[in-house]
Amino acid sequence: MLDMIIEDCQERMEKAIDAYNRELATIRTGRANPTMLDRVNVNYYGSPTPINQVASIKVVEGRQLMVKPYDRSALKDIEHGIFEANLGLTPQNDGEVIRINVPPLTEERRKEYAKDVWKFAEKAKVAIRNIRRDCNDEIKKLEISEDEIKGGQETVQKLTDRFVKEVDEIGKVKEKDILTV
């Protein structure tokens, strides 16, 4: 039973790392990347829909995104959704596709994005610590000896330390990527 709790704990912490990586993918690094638009929702037939479900997104010429809707009648809604997302990007509608030029980042903007990396990192660490607390509570409820409880909690703490360190390492790599001109 203790092994199952620890295994579940590790799985949940890995999912927290995955969520952190997905959040980091939405931060601009000065290069065009389709994941930059992951936070964009389009009002498609009255319901908010993620942009990647109503259009294909491709990188063209390194600094430009091309958004091609599956349904041409959604072109205006997609354009509006990109404006509403406040990404600092200006969509250009040519009647067929939407082109988005990704401007190079200013030094000030790079520093803002680097701060965002650490905000997301802190959220990920809090999630990992909450998972640790939940797992420790489950371990305490088990009807096993105190030594086994203590051993289980130490294992959970080692997992927590490992995943918090991983969050920091991922954050450092992303920060370096953002601050590199």
Give the strand line-up of the largest sheet: 3-4-6-5
In terms of per-residue confidence, which ranges show pLDDT below 50 for 5 or more consecutive residues? none
CATH superfamily of the largest domain: Ribosome-recycling factor
Q: What structural category arises from helix and sheet content? A: alpha+beta
CATH architecture classification of the largest domain: Orthogonal Bundle
Quick one: CATH class of the largest domain? Mainly Alpha
Task: Give the number of DSSP strands.
Answer: 6
> Quick one: overall form?
elongated
Q: Roughly what percent helix?
A: 55-70%
Q: What order do the SSEs take from the amino end to the carboxyl end, as H and E?
A: HEEEEHEEHH
Strand-residue fraction?
Answer: 5-15%
* Subunit organisation of the chains: single chain
Number of helices: 4
Number of structural units classed as domains? 2
The CATH topology of the largest domain is Topoisomerase I, Chain A, domain 4
Radius of gyration, in angstroms, nearest whole number: 21 Å
**Terminus-to-terminus distance:** 51 Å
Largest sheet, if any?
Answer: 4 strands, antiparallel
Mean pLDDT: 91
What features would you describe in this structure?
It is a single chain. This protein has 181 residues and is of the alpha+beta class. It folds into two domains: 2-25 and 106-179, Ribosome-recycling factor (Topoisomerase I, Chain A, domain 4, Orthogonal Bundle); 34-101, Gyrase A, domain 2, CATH 3.30.1360.40. The protein is built from four helices and six strands. It has helices at 2-25, 75-84, 107-141, 146-179; strands at residues 41-44, 47-50, 55-60, 64-69, 91-93, 98-101. The protein has a four-stranded antiparallel β-sheet with strand order 3-4-6-5, with helices on one face. Strands 1-2 form a two-stranded antiparallel ribbon. β5 (91-93) and β6 (98-101) form a beta hairpin. The longest helix is centred in the last third of the chain and has 35 residues, at 107-141. The chain is elongated, with a radius of gyration of 21 Å. It starts with a helix and ends with a helix.
